[in-house]
Specification:
With 105 residues, the protein is mainly α. The chain has one domain (3-98). It contains six helices and no strands. α3 (37-53) packs parallel to α6 and α4 (57-69) packs across α6 (83-98). The chain is globular, with a radius of gyration of 13 Å.
Length: 105
Amino acid sequence: MTAQLYLQKAEIQLARGLEEKALESLLAALACQDEDTVSKAQAHCLLGEYWLVHQQYVQAQEQFGWISDHAEQLKQNYDDLLNEEIREAEVLLRIMRRFRLSSEQ
């Protein structure tokens, strides 16, 4: 399967309350060998949300940090397509830093 299909599967699983299965699908999306950067960025964002909700702040920071680290390249290559994910990652990273939930202060 492709990263996009794993991402869609994870979204369906989340909608059905199957969080553990969704986590497996999101991790599989990131492990895909295809070059679907958009789906992988979206998977990083969903994984960050998952880890944040489950108070796994280091893992959440890793996911949001990936998006933040690649934000300029993502904006340049995909115009406005990933603006929501980029903005969300930056806002949640800022909140995590403010409340000292991350390793970065």
